[in-house]
What does this fold into?
Amino acid sequence: MQARTASQDMNKVVVGLSGGVDSSVAAATLHQQGYDVVGLTLWLMKGKGQCCSEGMVDATRLCDEMGVPHHIVDTRDVFEKYIVDYLVSGYGDGITPLPCSQCNKAVKFGPMLRYSQEELGIDKIATGHYARIQQDSATGRYQLLRAIDRSKDQSYFLYDLEQDILAHTLFPLGDQTKVETRRMATEFGLHTAEKPESQDLCLIEAHGSMQAFLDKFLAPKEGDIVDQDGRVLGRHTGIHHYTIGQRKGLGIAAANPLYVIGLDAGRNQVIVGDRTDMLVPEFSVQRVNWVSIAPPSTPIRAEVQIRYRATPVGATVAPLEGNRARIVFDEPQFGVTPGQAAVWYDGEVVLGGGIIERLESHPA
It folds into this structure.
C-alpha cells in the first residue's frame, strides 16, 4: 500500500485494542468525546496464543459495536525478533530480561504510529495504559507522568518511549482509577466490562509459565548450585529456571533462607547466599532513555524504582558515556536484577530509565 501523508485533522485517533477492558474503555471514551476513532490490533504471537486470538475477536466486536473501522496488523515477526529472541537470549545468558518496556517501544507504539501515519494518514494514537503525558511549557518537551491510580500505574514500563512517540500519544485512562474504568465499561455497555484482568506477561498466559515458554527454546542443562565460595550445595536443571532474588524452589536445606544472588552462564552455576548478600549499594544501567528531561551533564537526585512493584528510593543518578548511567543508592537495596529496568522519577515525573547491567560484586 502506498504511504499517505499524515492527516492534520486532530480529531482522528488510532486506538490500540488488545480486547481487554482498559483499551476498550479508552476507545469508547475517545469516541464519546467526539474523536473519529479507528481501532488497531497488533497480531503479536505465532501459534495458538490465547491472548492474541481471543483479543482480536473481542477487539473486532468492540469496533462493530461502536461502528468504527478495525485494522489488524501482522507484527508476529517483529514480536519474534524483539521479544521472543530477546528473552531466550537473555535467560540463556544468565540475566532476567524485562520484555514489556522493550515491547512497548519496538513492537507496539513505534509500529502503531508508523502504520497510523503512513497507511491511515492519522497523526494520533492512543492506548489503555495507565500513565499521563503533559508538555512542559518552558522547554516544549513532552513529559511522562505516573497515573493517578498508583496501584495500576504503568509508567515504569513506558520509560523507553521517546519524544517523537509521546508527542503523538494519548492515554485516556491516566486520570482515573481502575474502579472507574470498570464502571465506565458497564455504562458504555461494553461486552468486555466483566472480562477478567490479565495478570501475567502475554507469553506466560499463552504457555502456562515462563519456564514452559523457555523450555521450548532452551534445553535443560544440569549444573551446580554453589555458594559464594564455590561450595556445591545442590543441583539445578538450567540457569534459565532461576532469577536473581529467588528464594523458593531451590531444593536446598539450610539453617537460614538462601537466595539466588548470581547466575554464571559460563560455568553453568546458580550462586546463592543469604539476604545480606543481596544488598546492592550501586550499579550501572545501559540503553538509557532520558524521557522527560534532556540528558544531564552532571549527576542528579531522583527516586529510583528497580522493579514494577518496588518502592522508589532515594539515589544519585550519574550520566556516563555510551548511553549509560551509574546509580548510587542512599541505602543499599535488595533485589537489583540484571536485565530488569531501573526507572528514576522526580515525584510523578519519569525522568529516565535504563536496563540494569551485570553486578560487579557477584560472580555472575
About this structure: The radius of gyration is 22 Å. The chain has three domains: 12-206, 219-273, 279-356. The CA atoms of residues 113 and 251 lie 48 Å apart. Residues 99-119 form the longest helix (21 residues).
